[in-house]
Design a protein that fits this description.
The protein is mainly alpha-helical. It has a single domain (7-112), classed as Rossmann fold (3-Layer(aba) Sandwich), CATH 3.40.50. Helices cover 49% and strands 7% of the residues. The chain is built from 5 helices and 2 strands; from the N terminus they run αβαααβα. The protein has helices spanning 5-10, 27-37, 42-55, 71-83, 101-112, and strands at residues 12-15, 89-92. Helix 2 runs parallel beside helix 4 (71-83). 29% of the residues are buried.
């Protein structure tokens, strides 16, 4: 795989210790950007974004600019960005930091069910 880094990147989802979202975009626009970076088709990207926004209780925040989000909502959005590509390998650095108990449960269920 060292000779094919592009193939490796397609198989990896990443969520770092700190939320890596664009604060000037909406939640939906952030997921759109993540999906495009992973070369998801537009139809699948839209469906996957809707699934994740609902699963992580972000539908109400989807059209709001991220700079208006609380820390926990930003964290959940960052985690959905790691899951949007449906990559078989996920690297999650302290994924539940800053999440309330319900969000933690949703996160682990979302990872198990993928």
């Amino acid at each position: 795989m060292a000779a094919a880094p592009g193939k490796v990147r397609k198989r990896i989802g990443l969520s770092g210790q700190h939320a890596a979202v664009d604060e000037q975009l909406t939640g939906l626009e952030n997921l759109d950007m993540s999906g495009r970076l992973h070369h998801l088709g537009l139809k699948r990207l839209k469906a996957r974004a809707r699934e994740l926004l609902e699963q992580f209780s972000l539908t109400d925040a989807a059209q709001r600019i991220v700079s208006t989000y609380s820390g926990g909502v930003r964290r959940r959005l960052d985690l959905t960005g790691a899951l949007v590509s449906e990559a078989p390998v996920l690297f999650l650095d302290e994924p539940i930091t800053g999440l309330d108990p319900r969000s933690r449960t949703e996160l682990w269920a979302g990872i198990r069910d993928r």
